[in-house]
Amino acid sequence: MAEKRENIGIVSLPEYAHADPTFIVSGLCELGNGFFNHIGVPHRHDFYTIYWIKQGELLLTIDTTTHEVKKNTLFFVAPGQVHNIQTSEKVEGYMIAFQDAFMCLKDQTQVSGINSGLFFNSQFSSVIAVDVEQERDFESVVHLMMKELTMREPEYEMALHGLLRYFLVLASRVKGQKVGISPEHHAMHNSSVFLKFKNLIEEKYHELKTVSDYAALLHIKPVLLNEISKQLSGITAGEHIRNRVILEAQRYLYNTDLTAKEIAYRLGFDDPHYFSRFFKKYTNQSPSEFKEASRPVSHQA
Questions:
Q1: Do the domain assignments include residue 2?
Q2: HEC states along 22-61?
Q3: Does 151 share its domain with 29?
Q4: What is the pLDDT of residues 52-62, one digit of tens each?
Q5: What is the tens place of the pLDDT at every residue in 111-161?
Q6: What region, left, alpha or beta, does residue 148 occupy, with left being phi > 0 and alpha being psi -120 to 50 degrees?
Q7: Are residues 154 and 66 in the same domain?
Q8: What CATH number has the domain bearing residue 40?
Q9: Residue 53 and residue 273: Cα distance in Å, rounded?
């Protein structure tokens, strides 16, 4: 009998870099076991990751959505996203990885469009095909990154920061995202509040489940938090909270062998039956029905 999967592993940057950096760029083959040991195993990163598949094909599952990734494709993985790469052939390409402190992607006033468009979205869709002309631009930026990391000349970290920002801008253009940021102070304030709210959900969703809880932490009224959420995302603050809890439940149902009862306790529910009703109310499936319907298909090598 196969060993019961109860956890989704968390991979940290040093496991790839054999050090403790805030930024790395490397060919996939040069990553060695740090990369290939995680092929076929659902896991999370505690850092931002950009993969560029230059040659070969693979299946990429982000949370519960599977994408067929062909050659010359970029894809983006945010910290905490459960992902699984499956491949039956040799793949070549690059991985760019960095800690939040390196780029501060959570700083709404700096990279709003890039932030929301590439790493953070409700339905993961940042799988971007690159054409020949675009490939040359990305290749140039990657080679410059590698040169800066190798030479480590004065202010090389500033150079890497600029090159990474340029890489993300190029990717946003290919994806068709608007990178510009609204100059109105009011809009920037609301954006800042909303981003803080989203970050708080990531930190607190196991314990806090109501709009009032988060509004209190943000020192605003629940009705205002809902208005800002509706204005900037089209859905209420309560929906964001529920969606995050449901997403984590789906991650566990899809990637582990935990029972619904075990998942309920992990997500901060005192009553597993209430959790099951909650899950079915917002997904139209019971946890067991979701698990059966989304059971990963076995792909032969």
A1: no
A2: CEEEEECHHHCHHHHCCCCCCEEECCEEEEEEEECCEEEE
A3: yes
A4: 999 999 999 88
A5: 444 445 687 655 555 789 999 999 999 999 999 999 999 999 999 989 998
A6: alpha
A7: yes
A8: 2.60.120.280
A9: 44
> pLDDT-derived band of residue 100, with 50, 70 and 90 as boundaries?
confident
Q: By residue range, what is the domain housing residue 234?
A: 185-293
Entry pTM:
0.71
What's the rounded Cα separation, in Å, for the pair 113 and 121?
A: 11
Please give the tally of structural domains in the chain: 2
Quick one: 194 and 167 in the same domain? no
Query: Whats the size of the chain, residue-wise?
Result: 301
- Asked whether residue 197 falls in the same domain as residue 110, the answer is no
pLDDT score of 20: 57
Q: Which residue, 135, 157, 175, sits at the end of a domain?
A: 175
The one-character DSSP state at 297 is P
| Tokens describing residue 147 | 């040169």
Which own/partner contact pairs does 223-231 have at CB distance under 8 Å and 24+ positions apart? Answer: 225/193, 225/197, 228/190, 228/193, 228/194, 228/197, 229/194, 229/197, 231/190
Residues 201 and 66 in one domain: no
Residue 98: both structure tokens together:
């960095």
- Residue in the structure block whose two tokens are 């410059």: 144
Note the Cα 179 to chain centre separation in Å.
19
